[in-house]
Design brief:
Elements: H1 3-30, H2 36-56, H3 65-90, H4 96-107, H5 123-137, H6 140-147, H7 152-162, H8 165-168, H9 175-199, H10 204-215, H11 233-246, H12 250-258, H13 268-290, H14 296-311, H15 326-338, H16 351-369, E1 378-379, E2 382-383, H17 386-412, H18 417-428, H19 449-463, H20 467-476
Antiparallel strand pairs: 1-2
Helix pairs in contact: 1-2, 1-3, 1-5, 2-3, 3-4, 3-7, 3-20, 4-5, 4-19, 5-10, 6-9, 9-10, 9-11, 9-12, 11-14, 13-14, 13-15, 14-15, 16-17, 17-18, 17-19, 18-19
Amino acid sequence: MRKEVIIKFTGYVMLFNAFFLLVSFLISAALSETSTIPLLFSFLICIIFGFFPFIFVENHDEISFSEGLVIVAAGWLITCLVGMLPYIMWGGEFSVINAWFESVSGFTTTGASILTNVEALPKGLLFWRSSTHWIGGVGIIMFVLLILPHSTSSRLTLINAEMSELSKLNFRYKARKIVQVLVVVYVGLTLIQTILLTVAGMSFFDAINHSFATIATGGFSTKNLSVAHFNSPLIDYIIVFFMLISGLHFGLIYSTVIGRSENIFTTASVRAFVSLIFIGVILVALKLFFSNYYGWWDSLRFASFQVVSLASTTGFATVDTNSWPAFTHIILIYFTIQCAMVGSTSGGLKFDRVFLFFKSLGKQLKLIQHPRAIFVVKMNGRAVSEQLEKLTLVFIVLYIFTFFSTTLVLTAIDVDLFTAFSASITTIGNVGPGFGEVSSMSNFSTIPAFGKFVLSINMLLGRLEIFNIIALFMIRKGGF
């Protein structure tokens, strides 16, 4: 494995982060804020270390798959480390572990925060915090690939390392086209939502920050009460719509816009996902209404926001769900585990894997009745290989094992069971809020330092989808 290749590509990652640090610095400088110097120094560090390999390390046209895996993992790790710098230099609530937790949470689009007073942050730092969502949403590597002056095979290698096999089923494009589709949809949705939120009554600053968080399915807000601060049904429904859209496969969104026959309206998995969301919203709304929490329209409003927020892994909040009935907690926890679709900016187990699991289960039940028959599982009209079926099952088992193991670790350091279980699920799913001490109107500040570190690793495992981390250890042992 060539170290210089990895250094070269991580240099591109540093430069991309430097651009958003520069914008954050300019905002802070224009407003004469206390975050001006921390953002300036962070930008300078990032630009210097980004340009160094760009200048002194020669280009390599081809990279191996193992190098691609290391580049992806190293890119994410370095990005999270860079993201810490403005927080640590600014101070406030940001100890080293808190800065690391907030940075990882931002870039992995988890949206879990240690901040007890978000509104105390200067606007420049708030913009950087929201930018970490937007950078991490579609993937830092994907943005770098858009401008990468390297061969198609290098792009394809990095795409294969970054994207899951399931998500590539609905992409019938070449490597560079895949990246362009992702970025065009991503940027387009962000611009449209920003305009709509501004028209609905948000300031432009709040609108762009909340759009960054919504389209990235992140959940960082500029307000202590999250979206509840605005107390606007119109703003709620705009955000609900874009959270739902951002939870769909971006390739299918693009296909819908350009008028292809295979789109979000004709794809079976999308219909199943949206139908399940609808059922979840109705069940939660009915329970809230008949339990005399709210009137019917408020029940529907709050239920739709919270179900879509968790199912899309965004994590915004308009109400404290901790006080809701246990029945609604179970439904919300299910959506926290399942999450949205592959090919979106969401994290988690992904609905498509659950969908494929039940299709595979149906196949196995048929094989019990007809052991000599040949059955083929199809996803959206395409045959799925048995290898992909097995990989999906292994991933589900690993996913469940990971959040149960994390729960065990957290309870060992005296975090209560409900909080530990909820925090484990919500961090590996890159969702954000949970229940107990980490509920929708609370934060992760009460979790012990070691617990925050463990949960930050959970976030990275969830964002890199576990297999890539395992593959890295195999590379070290000579498995690749």
